[in-house]
Amino acid sequence: MKHSSHEEIAILDFGSQYTQLIARKTRENKVYSRILPFNEPLGDASRVKGIILSGGPASVYQEGAPIVSKNIFELGIPVLGICYGMQLMGLLLNGKITPSDKREYGRAELFIDRPSSLLEGVESGKVAWMSHGDRIDKLPPGFQSVAHTSNSPVAVMENAEKRLYGLQFHPEVTHSEQGGRILQNFLFRICGCGGDWTLGSFAEETIRGLRERIGDKKVICGLSGGVDSSVAAVLVSKAVGDQLISVFVDNGLLRKGEAEKVVQVFGGAGMKLNLRRVDASRRLLEKLKGVEDPEKKRKIIGHEFIAVFEEEAEKLGDIEFLAQGTLYPDVIESVSFKGPSATIKTHHNVGGLPERMKFKLVEPLRELFKDEVRELGRELGIPQDILMRQPFPGPGLAVRVLGRVTEERLAILREADAILLEEIKRAGLYHEIWQCFAVLLPVKTVGVMGDERTYENVVGIRAVNSRDGMTADWVKLPYDLLALLSNRIINEVKGVNRVVYDISSKPPATIEWE
Length: 514
Ligand code: XMP
Known about the structure:
The protein is α/β, with parallel strands linked by helices. It has helices at residues 19-28, 84-92, 179-190, 199-214, 227-240, 258-267, 281-288, 294-316, 328-335, 353-357, 370-379, 384-387, 407-426, 479-492, and strands at 8-13, 32-37, 48-53, 79-82, 96-98, 104-112, 126-132, 135-138, 144-148, 156-159, 164-167, 219-222, 244-250, 274-279, 321-323, 360-362, 435-449, 452-465, 473-474, 496-501.
Protein backbone atom coordinates (compact mmCIF):
# COMPACT_ATOMS: atom_id res chain seq x y z
CA MET A 1 0.00 0.00 0.00
CA LYS A 2 1.25 3.47 -0.75
CA HIS A 3 1.56 6.18 1.84
CA SER A 4 2.61 8.82 -0.57
CA SER A 5 1.51 11.79 1.47
CA HIS A 6 2.95 10.54 4.73
CA GLU A 7 6.14 11.34 6.42
CA GLU A 8 7.81 8.23 7.66
CA ILE A 9 10.55 6.94 9.90
CA ALA A 10 12.61 4.13 8.44
CA ILE A 11 13.81 1.61 11.00
CA LEU A 12 16.69 -0.49 9.78
CA ASP A 13 16.62 -3.85 11.50
CA PHE A 14 19.84 -5.44 12.64
CA GLY A 15 18.03 -8.28 14.34
CA SER A 16 17.16 -6.81 17.73
CA GLN A 17 14.37 -8.44 19.68
CA TYR A 18 13.10 -4.89 20.28
CA THR A 19 12.84 -3.65 16.68
CA GLN A 20 9.06 -4.04 16.59
CA LEU A 21 8.83 -2.05 19.79
CA ILE A 22 10.60 0.88 18.14
CA ALA A 23 8.01 0.79 15.37
CA ARG A 24 5.20 0.61 17.91
CA LYS A 25 6.53 3.55 19.86
CA THR A 26 6.88 5.79 16.84
CA ARG A 27 3.37 4.96 15.68
CA GLU A 28 2.00 5.65 19.14
CA ASN A 29 3.30 9.15 18.50
CA LYS A 30 1.27 9.23 15.29
CA VAL A 31 4.36 9.01 13.14
CA TYR A 32 4.30 6.23 10.57
CA SER A 33 7.26 3.90 10.75
CA ARG A 34 8.47 1.07 8.61
CA ILE A 35 10.90 -1.70 9.48
CA LEU A 36 13.34 -2.59 6.74
CA PRO A 37 16.00 -5.27 6.74
CA PHE A 38 19.28 -3.39 7.26
CA ASN A 39 20.40 -4.08 3.70
CA GLU A 40 17.25 -2.97 1.91
CA PRO A 41 17.16 0.38 0.10
CA LEU A 42 15.16 3.13 1.77
CA GLY A 43 12.76 3.51 -1.10
CA ASP A 44 11.35 6.99 -1.61
CA ALA A 45 13.79 8.94 0.58
CA SER A 46 11.80 12.14 0.18
CA ARG A 47 9.22 10.78 2.60
CA VAL A 48 11.78 9.61 5.12
CA LYS A 49 12.08 12.17 7.89
CA GLY A 50 14.38 10.10 10.03
CA ILE A 51 16.26 6.82 10.18
CA ILE A 52 16.61 4.63 13.24
CA LEU A 53 19.27 1.94 13.32
CA SER A 54 18.06 -0.82 15.62
CA GLY A 55 20.08 -2.82 18.08
CA GLY A 56 21.21 -6.29 17.24
CA PRO A 57 22.90 -9.36 18.64
CA ALA A 58 26.11 -9.03 16.64
CA SER A 59 29.31 -7.19 17.47
CA VAL A 60 30.43 -4.69 14.83
CA TYR A 61 33.79 -6.42 14.59
CA GLN A 62 32.35 -9.87 14.17
CA GLU A 63 32.82 -11.52 10.82
CA GLY A 64 29.72 -11.15 8.69
CA ALA A 65 28.28 -8.50 11.03
CA PRO A 66 25.44 -6.60 9.32
CA ILE A 67 26.75 -3.32 7.95
CA VAL A 68 25.07 -0.45 6.11
CA SER A 69 26.59 1.87 3.58
CA LYS A 70 28.24 4.97 4.99
CA ASN A 71 26.13 7.01 2.58
CA ILE A 72 23.23 6.76 4.94
CA PHE A 73 24.89 9.44 7.08
CA GLU A 74 25.28 11.75 4.10
CA LEU A 75 21.63 11.97 3.06
CA GLY A 76 20.94 14.95 5.31
CA ILE A 77 18.32 12.83 7.10
CA PRO A 78 18.63 12.59 10.89
CA VAL A 79 19.85 9.21 12.11
CA LEU A 80 19.42 7.68 15.55
CA GLY A 81 21.54 4.61 16.27
CA ILE A 82 20.44 2.44 19.14
CA CYS A 83 22.97 0.14 20.82
CA TYR A 84 24.42 -1.89 17.90
CA GLY A 85 23.14 0.91 15.67
CA MET A 86 25.20 3.41 17.63
CA GLN A 87 28.32 1.29 17.52
CA LEU A 88 27.92 0.82 13.81
CA MET A 89 27.57 4.57 13.36
CA GLY A 90 30.69 5.04 15.46
CA LEU A 91 32.66 2.49 13.46
CA LEU A 92 31.60 3.72 10.00
CA LEU A 93 32.34 7.35 10.89
CA ASN A 94 35.85 6.52 12.06
CA GLY A 95 35.41 6.29 15.78
CA LYS A 96 36.78 3.41 17.82
CA ILE A 97 34.66 0.66 19.30
CA THR A 98 36.03 -1.63 21.96
CA PRO A 99 34.75 -5.13 22.22
CA SER A 100 34.32 -5.76 25.90
CA ASP A 101 34.35 -9.23 27.32
CA LYS A 102 31.76 -8.25 29.88
CA ARG A 103 28.30 -7.50 28.58
CA GLU A 104 26.26 -4.88 30.37
CA TYR A 105 22.66 -5.93 30.89
CA GLY A 106 19.76 -4.29 32.59
CA ARG A 107 19.43 -1.09 34.53
CA ALA A 108 21.93 1.72 34.64
CA GLU A 109 21.60 5.35 35.70
CA LEU A 110 21.96 7.86 32.93
CA PHE A 111 23.80 11.08 33.82
CA ILE A 112 23.51 14.02 31.47
CA ASP A 113 26.69 16.00 30.91
CA ARG A 114 25.67 18.55 28.27
CA PRO A 115 22.48 19.98 26.85
CA SER A 116 21.25 18.17 23.74
CA SER A 117 18.07 18.39 21.68
CA LEU A 118 17.75 14.64 22.05
CA LEU A 119 17.70 14.89 25.84
CA GLU A 120 15.53 18.00 26.16
CA GLY A 121 13.31 17.64 29.23
CA VAL A 122 15.05 14.43 30.28
CA GLU A 123 16.12 14.26 33.93
CA SER A 124 19.61 13.21 34.90
CA GLY A 125 20.04 10.13 37.09
CA LYS A 126 17.09 8.10 35.78
CA VAL A 127 17.14 4.47 34.70
CA ALA A 128 18.20 3.51 31.19
CA TRP A 129 18.01 -0.10 30.03
CA MET A 130 21.23 -1.56 28.70
CA SER A 131 21.97 -4.69 26.75
CA HIS A 132 25.32 -4.47 25.04
CA GLY A 133 28.84 -5.82 24.85
CA ASP A 134 30.85 -3.34 22.77
CA ARG A 135 31.21 0.29 23.62
CA ILE A 136 32.43 3.52 22.08
CA ASP A 137 36.03 4.05 23.03
CA LYS A 138 36.89 7.02 20.81
CA LEU A 139 34.20 9.26 19.42
CA PRO A 140 34.05 9.75 15.65
CA PRO A 141 35.26 13.19 14.50
CA GLY A 142 32.58 15.86 14.90
CA PHE A 143 30.80 13.95 17.69
CA GLN A 144 30.60 14.69 21.37
CA SER A 145 29.42 12.69 24.32
CA VAL A 146 26.40 14.16 26.06
CA ALA A 147 25.61 11.58 28.73
CA HIS A 148 27.24 8.67 30.54
CA THR A 149 26.47 5.77 32.84
CA SER A 150 28.87 4.25 35.35
CA ASN A 151 29.90 1.60 32.81
CA SER A 152 29.64 3.58 29.58
CA PRO A 153 31.52 6.86 29.38
CA VAL A 154 29.65 7.51 26.12
CA ALA A 155 26.04 6.52 26.71
CA VAL A 156 24.69 9.19 24.36
CA MET A 157 26.65 10.77 21.53
CA GLU A 158 25.73 13.39 18.98
CA ASN A 159 26.86 15.31 15.98
CA ALA A 160 24.19 17.99 16.27
CA GLU A 161 25.22 19.76 13.08
CA LYS A 162 24.70 16.64 10.97
CA ARG A 163 21.81 15.50 13.15
CA LEU A 164 23.39 12.15 13.93
CA TYR A 165 22.71 10.62 17.35
CA GLY A 166 23.61 7.45 19.17
CA LEU A 167 22.20 5.82 22.30
CA GLN A 168 24.02 3.04 24.06
CA PHE A 169 20.78 1.96 25.76
CA HIS A 170 17.32 1.02 24.56
CA PRO A 171 14.85 3.92 24.75
CA GLU A 172 12.08 1.74 23.29
CA VAL A 173 11.71 -0.58 26.29
CA THR A 174 9.44 0.48 29.12
CA HIS A 175 12.21 0.00 31.66
CA SER A 176 14.04 2.99 30.22
CA GLU A 177 12.25 5.57 32.30
CA GLN A 178 12.57 8.46 29.93
CA GLY A 179 12.96 6.53 26.72
CA GLY A 180 9.59 7.72 25.44
CA ARG A 181 10.64 11.32 25.87
CA ILE A 182 13.93 10.71 24.07
CA LEU A 183 12.18 9.10 21.10
CA GLN A 184 9.72 11.98 20.97
CA ASN A 185 12.60 14.44 20.94
CA PHE A 186 14.09 12.57 18.02
CA LEU A 187 10.82 12.43 16.09
CA PHE A 188 9.58 15.96 16.68
CA ARG A 189 12.52 18.19 17.62
CA ILE A 190 15.17 16.61 15.45
CA CYS A 191 13.30 15.09 12.51
CA GLY A 192 10.54 17.70 12.57
CA CYS A 193 7.75 15.16 12.18
CA GLY A 194 4.21 16.48 12.25
CA GLY A 195 2.64 13.47 13.98
CA ASP A 196 -0.46 13.31 11.84
CA TRP A 197 -0.60 9.60 11.06
CA THR A 198 -3.88 8.13 12.23
CA LEU A 199 -5.71 4.96 11.44
CA GLY A 200 -8.49 7.03 9.92
CA SER A 201 -6.09 8.48 7.40
CA PHE A 202 -4.56 5.06 6.90
CA ALA A 203 -8.01 3.68 6.08
CA GLU A 204 -8.75 6.45 3.59
CA GLU A 205 -5.46 6.04 1.79
CA THR A 206 -5.70 2.28 1.79
CA ILE A 207 -9.19 2.37 0.34
CA ARG A 208 -8.02 4.72 -2.39
CA GLY A 209 -5.03 2.50 -3.16
CA LEU A 210 -7.19 -0.64 -3.24
CA ARG A 211 -9.61 0.95 -5.70
CA GLU A 212 -6.76 1.86 -7.99
CA ARG A 213 -5.19 -1.57 -7.86
CA ILE A 214 -8.33 -3.68 -8.09
CA GLY A 215 -10.16 -1.61 -10.69
CA ASP A 216 -13.22 -3.52 -11.85
CA LYS A 217 -11.80 -6.96 -11.08
CA LYS A 218 -13.23 -9.41 -8.57
CA VAL A 219 -11.72 -10.25 -5.19
CA ILE A 220 -12.42 -13.24 -3.01
CA CYS A 221 -11.69 -13.65 0.68
CA GLY A 222 -12.23 -16.26 3.34
CA LEU A 223 -14.16 -14.73 6.23
CA SER A 224 -13.84 -16.69 9.45
CA GLY A 225 -15.38 -14.18 11.83
CA GLY A 226 -11.98 -13.66 13.48
CA VAL A 227 -10.59 -10.15 13.88
CA ASP A 228 -8.05 -10.10 11.05
CA SER A 229 -10.15 -11.57 8.27
CA SER A 230 -13.14 -9.44 9.31
CA VAL A 231 -11.28 -6.14 9.26
CA ALA A 232 -9.56 -7.02 5.99
CA ALA A 233 -12.88 -7.92 4.35
CA VAL A 234 -14.68 -4.80 5.54
CA LEU A 235 -11.82 -2.58 4.40
CA VAL A 236 -11.69 -4.14 0.94
CA SER A 237 -15.47 -3.95 0.62
CA LYS A 238 -15.37 -0.24 1.46
CA ALA A 239 -13.08 0.09 -1.54
CA VAL A 240 -14.75 -2.11 -4.14
CA GLY A 241 -18.18 -2.99 -2.71
CA ASP A 242 -19.72 -6.15 -4.08
CA GLN A 243 -16.71 -6.92 -6.25
CA LEU A 244 -15.44 -8.51 -3.05
CA ILE A 245 -17.04 -11.87 -2.39
CA SER A 246 -16.53 -13.00 1.18
CA VAL A 247 -16.78 -16.73 1.56
CA PHE A 248 -17.71 -17.96 5.00
CA VAL A 249 -17.10 -21.67 5.24
CA ASP A 250 -19.19 -23.07 8.06
CA ASN A 251 -17.27 -26.20 8.91
CA GLY A 252 -19.73 -27.23 11.61
CA LEU A 253 -17.00 -26.87 14.21
CA LEU A 254 -17.91 -23.43 15.49
CA ARG A 255 -19.32 -22.56 18.87
CA LYS A 256 -22.98 -22.11 19.73
CA GLY A 257 -24.59 -19.38 17.64
CA GLU A 258 -21.30 -18.36 16.04
CA ALA A 259 -22.11 -19.08 12.40
CA GLU A 260 -25.42 -17.24 12.66
CA LYS A 261 -23.68 -14.29 14.23
CA VAL A 262 -21.12 -14.02 11.43
CA VAL A 263 -23.90 -14.05 8.85
CA GLN A 264 -25.98 -11.54 10.77
CA VAL A 265 -23.15 -9.08 11.45
CA PHE A 266 -21.36 -9.21 8.11
CA GLY A 267 -24.10 -10.15 5.70
CA GLY A 268 -26.68 -7.87 7.28
CA ALA A 269 -27.33 -4.18 7.02
CA GLY A 270 -24.40 -3.21 9.26
CA MET A 271 -21.41 -4.34 7.21
CA LYS A 272 -23.23 -5.20 3.98
CA LEU A 273 -20.64 -7.65 2.75
CA ASN A 274 -21.36 -9.68 -0.33
CA LEU A 275 -21.30 -12.80 1.80
CA ARG A 276 -21.62 -16.42 0.74
CA ARG A 277 -22.15 -18.91 3.52
CA VAL A 278 -21.14 -22.38 2.53
CA ASP A 279 -22.39 -25.12 4.80
CA ALA A 280 -19.64 -27.71 4.83
CA SER A 281 -20.55 -29.26 8.16
CA ARG A 282 -21.87 -32.60 6.85
CA ARG A 283 -18.90 -32.99 4.60
CA LEU A 284 -16.46 -32.25 7.41
CA LEU A 285 -18.11 -34.62 9.89
CA GLU A 286 -18.03 -37.33 7.28
CA LYS A 287 -14.29 -36.82 6.74
CA LEU A 288 -13.61 -36.70 10.45
CA LYS A 289 -15.50 -39.91 11.15
CA GLY A 290 -13.46 -42.22 13.36
CA VAL A 291 -10.40 -39.91 13.32
CA GLU A 292 -8.77 -39.54 16.73
CA ASP A 293 -5.34 -38.14 16.04
CA PRO A 294 -5.28 -34.34 16.51
CA GLU A 295 -2.82 -33.68 13.69
CA LYS A 296 -4.89 -35.78 11.31
CA LYS A 297 -7.94 -33.77 12.30
CA ARG A 298 -6.07 -30.54 11.56
CA LYS A 299 -4.92 -31.81 8.17
CA ILE A 300 -8.39 -32.93 7.16
CA ILE A 301 -9.97 -29.64 8.22
CA GLY A 302 -7.32 -27.54 6.48
CA HIS A 303 -7.54 -29.61 3.36
CA GLU A 304 -11.33 -29.49 3.21
CA PHE A 305 -11.33 -25.74 3.76
CA ILE A 306 -9.15 -25.28 0.73
CA ALA A 307 -11.25 -27.69 -1.31
CA VAL A 308 -14.50 -25.90 -0.44
CA PHE A 309 -12.94 -22.52 -1.08
CA GLU A 310 -11.62 -23.61 -4.46
CA GLU A 311 -15.00 -24.94 -5.45
CA GLU A 312 -16.62 -21.63 -4.57
CA ALA A 313 -14.02 -19.65 -6.47
CA GLU A 314 -14.54 -21.92 -9.45
CA LYS A 315 -18.27 -21.30 -9.35
CA LEU A 316 -17.76 -17.56 -9.21
CA GLY A 317 -15.33 -17.56 -12.12
CA ASP A 318 -12.78 -14.93 -13.25
CA ILE A 319 -11.51 -13.86 -9.88
CA GLU A 320 -8.23 -12.04 -9.91
CA PHE A 321 -7.42 -11.27 -6.29
CA LEU A 322 -7.41 -13.01 -2.94
CA ALA A 323 -7.70 -10.75 0.13
CA GLN A 324 -6.02 -11.92 3.33
CA GLY A 325 -5.70 -10.52 6.82
CA THR A 326 -1.91 -10.87 7.07
CA LEU A 327 -0.54 -8.65 9.85
CA TYR A 328 2.71 -6.76 10.23
CA PRO A 329 4.39 -9.14 12.68
CA ASP A 330 3.97 -11.98 10.15
CA VAL A 331 5.48 -9.83 7.46
CA ILE A 332 8.42 -8.72 9.58
CA GLU A 333 9.12 -12.25 10.61
CA SER A 334 9.48 -13.27 7.04
CA VAL A 335 11.70 -10.33 6.03
CA SER A 336 13.77 -10.00 9.17
CA PHE A 337 17.48 -10.29 8.86
CA LYS A 338 17.35 -13.04 11.45
CA GLY A 339 15.08 -15.02 9.20
CA PRO A 340 11.68 -16.32 10.10
CA SER A 341 11.37 -17.63 13.61
CA ALA A 342 9.27 -20.63 14.44
CA THR A 343 6.06 -19.54 16.11
CA ILE A 344 2.47 -20.59 16.51
CA LYS A 345 1.63 -18.61 13.44
CA THR A 346 2.34 -21.49 11.15
CA HIS A 347 -1.03 -22.93 11.97
CA HIS A 348 -2.81 -19.74 11.16
CA ASN A 349 -1.93 -19.64 7.51
CA VAL A 350 -4.53 -20.79 5.10
CA GLY A 351 -1.80 -22.94 3.65
CA GLY A 352 -1.16 -22.84 -0.03
CA LEU A 353 -4.25 -21.00 -1.23
CA PRO A 354 -2.61 -18.26 -3.28
CA GLU A 355 0.02 -20.48 -4.88
CA ARG A 356 -2.44 -23.12 -5.89
CA MET A 357 -5.01 -20.77 -7.28
CA LYS A 358 -2.75 -18.20 -8.92
CA PHE A 359 -4.49 -15.32 -7.22
CA LYS A 360 -2.83 -11.99 -6.78
CA LEU A 361 -2.68 -11.16 -3.11
CA VAL A 362 -4.37 -8.20 -1.46
CA GLU A 363 -3.15 -7.76 2.10
CA PRO A 364 -4.45 -4.43 3.36
CA LEU A 365 -3.37 -5.01 6.97
CA ARG A 366 0.18 -6.02 6.29
CA GLU A 367 1.51 -2.82 7.82
CA LEU A 368 -0.50 -2.97 11.03
CA PHE A 369 -0.08 -4.48 14.46
CA LYS A 370 -2.92 -6.40 16.08
CA ASP A 371 -4.16 -3.59 18.29
CA GLU A 372 -4.03 -1.19 15.35
CA VAL A 373 -6.19 -3.65 13.43
CA ARG A 374 -8.69 -3.62 16.27
CA GLU A 375 -8.75 0.16 16.33
CA LEU A 376 -9.17 0.28 12.57
CA GLY A 377 -12.02 -2.21 12.86
CA ARG A 378 -13.66 0.12 15.37
CA GLU A 379 -13.34 3.01 12.94
CA LEU A 380 -14.94 0.87 10.26
CA GLY A 381 -17.90 0.16 12.54
CA ILE A 382 -17.24 -3.51 13.24
CA PRO A 383 -18.91 -4.47 16.53
CA GLN A 384 -16.75 -4.53 19.61
CA ASP A 385 -17.49 -8.15 20.51
CA ILE A 386 -16.02 -9.30 17.18
CA LEU A 387 -12.95 -7.11 17.57
CA MET A 388 -12.25 -8.11 21.15
CA ARG A 389 -12.78 -11.81 20.67
CA GLN A 390 -10.44 -14.22 22.35
CA PRO A 391 -8.38 -16.28 19.89
CA PHE A 392 -10.15 -19.33 18.52
CA PRO A 393 -8.31 -22.09 16.66
CA GLY A 394 -9.02 -22.70 12.98
CA PRO A 395 -9.91 -26.38 13.53
CA GLY A 396 -12.45 -25.15 16.07
CA LEU A 397 -14.26 -27.56 18.34
CA ALA A 398 -12.75 -30.56 16.55
CA VAL A 399 -9.65 -30.16 18.74
CA ARG A 400 -11.79 -29.61 21.83
CA VAL A 401 -13.92 -32.71 21.42
CA LEU A 402 -11.05 -35.01 22.35
CA GLY A 403 -10.84 -38.17 20.32
CA ARG A 404 -13.68 -38.95 17.93
CA VAL A 405 -15.78 -36.05 16.73
CA THR A 406 -19.49 -36.70 16.35
CA GLU A 407 -22.45 -34.41 16.00
CA GLU A 408 -23.73 -35.52 19.36
CA ARG A 409 -20.45 -34.83 21.13
CA LEU A 410 -20.11 -31.46 19.41
CA ALA A 411 -23.59 -30.57 20.67
CA ILE A 412 -22.67 -31.43 24.27
CA LEU A 413 -19.50 -29.36 24.09
CA ARG A 414 -21.31 -26.40 22.51
CA GLU A 415 -23.78 -26.22 25.37
CA ALA A 416 -21.11 -26.51 28.06
CA ASP A 417 -18.90 -23.95 26.34
CA ALA A 418 -21.78 -21.50 25.96
CA ILE A 419 -22.49 -21.66 29.69
CA LEU A 420 -18.81 -21.14 30.45
CA LEU A 421 -18.55 -18.08 28.20
CA GLU A 422 -21.81 -16.64 29.50
CA GLU A 423 -20.68 -16.84 33.12
CA ILE A 424 -17.17 -15.59 32.42
CA LYS A 425 -18.66 -12.57 30.65
CA ARG A 426 -21.19 -12.03 33.42
CA ALA A 427 -18.32 -12.03 35.93
CA GLY A 428 -16.61 -9.33 33.85
CA LEU A 429 -13.60 -11.57 33.22
CA TYR A 430 -13.83 -12.22 29.48
CA HIS A 431 -11.46 -9.44 28.47
CA GLU A 432 -9.08 -10.16 31.33
CA ILE A 433 -8.42 -13.65 30.05
CA TRP A 434 -6.45 -14.62 26.96
CA GLN A 435 -8.56 -17.70 26.27
CA CYS A 436 -11.19 -19.68 28.14
CA PHE A 437 -13.10 -22.63 26.81
CA ALA A 438 -14.53 -26.05 27.57
CA VAL A 439 -13.25 -29.39 26.31
CA LEU A 440 -15.08 -32.69 26.19
CA LEU A 441 -12.99 -35.55 27.48
CA PRO A 442 -13.00 -38.96 25.81
CA VAL A 443 -13.81 -40.77 29.05
CA LYS A 444 -16.96 -41.44 30.99
CA THR A 445 -17.20 -41.44 34.75
CA VAL A 446 -19.69 -42.67 37.29
CA GLY A 447 -21.98 -40.26 39.07
CA VAL A 448 -25.20 -40.23 40.98
CA MET A 449 -28.22 -38.10 40.13
CA GLY A 450 -31.33 -38.40 42.24
CA ASP A 451 -31.24 -42.03 43.26
CA GLU A 452 -29.75 -43.19 40.07
CA ARG A 453 -26.27 -44.11 39.08
CA THR A 454 -25.07 -42.30 35.96
CA TYR A 455 -22.24 -43.07 33.61
CA GLU A 456 -21.62 -39.91 31.63
CA ASN A 457 -19.13 -37.48 30.09
CA VAL A 458 -16.54 -35.21 31.71
CA VAL A 459 -16.13 -31.57 30.71
CA GLY A 460 -12.81 -29.84 31.30
CA ILE A 461 -12.57 -26.09 31.78
CA ARG A 462 -9.50 -24.26 30.55
CA ALA A 463 -8.74 -20.61 31.25
CA VAL A 464 -5.28 -19.20 30.55
CA ASN A 465 -3.47 -15.94 30.43
CA SER A 466 -0.79 -15.31 27.88
CA ARG A 467 0.82 -12.48 25.94
CA ASP A 468 1.29 -14.23 22.64
CA GLY A 469 0.11 -17.81 22.97
CA MET A 470 3.68 -19.10 23.20
CA THR A 471 3.67 -19.46 26.96
CA ALA A 472 0.64 -19.37 29.23
CA ASP A 473 -0.43 -19.78 32.81
CA TRP A 474 -3.75 -21.02 34.12
CA VAL A 475 -6.04 -18.40 35.57
CA LYS A 476 -6.96 -18.53 39.24
CA LEU A 477 -10.69 -18.25 38.66
CA PRO A 478 -12.65 -17.53 41.86
CA TYR A 479 -13.92 -20.69 43.58
CA ASP A 480 -17.47 -19.36 43.56
CA LEU A 481 -17.35 -18.98 39.83
CA LEU A 482 -15.93 -22.48 39.39
CA ALA A 483 -18.69 -23.83 41.60
CA LEU A 484 -21.32 -22.03 39.56
CA LEU A 485 -19.86 -23.31 36.29
CA SER A 486 -19.75 -26.87 37.52
CA ASN A 487 -23.29 -26.67 38.82
CA ARG A 488 -24.75 -25.16 35.71
CA ILE A 489 -22.93 -27.42 33.28
CA ILE A 490 -23.82 -30.62 35.13
CA ASN A 491 -27.44 -29.60 35.64
CA GLU A 492 -28.11 -28.07 32.24
CA VAL A 493 -26.07 -30.11 29.80
CA LYS A 494 -27.48 -33.52 29.25
CA GLY A 495 -24.82 -36.20 29.17
CA VAL A 496 -22.35 -34.54 31.56
CA ASN A 497 -21.92 -35.58 35.17
CA ARG A 498 -18.50 -34.21 36.05
CA VAL A 499 -16.54 -30.98 35.53
CA VAL A 500 -12.79 -30.61 36.08
CA TYR A 501 -10.54 -27.56 36.02
CA ASP A 502 -7.25 -27.60 34.14
CA ILE A 503 -4.40 -26.23 36.26
CA SER A 504 -1.51 -26.76 33.83
CA SER A 505 0.73 -24.05 32.47
CA LYS A 506 2.30 -23.92 29.01
CA PRO A 507 4.92 -25.29 28.86
CA PRO A 508 4.81 -28.16 29.61
CA ALA A 509 1.12 -28.41 28.64
CA THR A 510 -0.32 -26.56 25.65
CA ILE A 511 -3.28 -24.20 25.69
CA GLU A 512 -5.51 -26.52 23.67
CA TRP A 513 -5.84 -30.11 24.81
CA GLU A 514 -5.21 -31.48 21.35
P1 XMP B 1 -1.37 -24.37 21.83
O1 XMP B 1 -2.46 -25.36 22.06
O2 XMP B 1 -0.39 -24.78 20.77
O3 XMP B 1 -2.10 -23.07 21.27
O4 XMP B 1 -0.71 -23.95 23.11
C1 XMP B 1 -1.51 -21.81 21.10
C2 XMP B 1 -2.52 -20.90 20.46
O5 XMP B 1 -2.79 -21.32 19.13
C3 XMP B 1 -4.14 -21.68 19.00
N1 XMP B 1 -4.17 -22.89 18.16
C4 XMP B 1 -4.50 -22.91 16.87
N2 XMP B 1 -4.91 -21.91 16.05
N3 XMP B 1 -5.09 -23.47 14.29
C5 XMP B 1 -5.22 -22.21 14.77
O6 XMP B 1 -5.65 -21.33 14.01
C6 XMP B 1 -4.68 -24.52 15.05
O7 XMP B 1 -4.58 -25.65 14.59
C7 XMP B 1 -4.38 -24.21 16.41
N4 XMP B 1 -3.95 -24.97 17.47
C8 XMP B 1 -3.83 -24.13 18.52
C9 XMP B 1 -4.66 -21.92 20.40
O8 XMP B 1 -6.07 -21.71 20.48
C10 XMP B 1 -3.87 -20.90 21.16
O9 XMP B 1 -4.41 -19.60 21.03
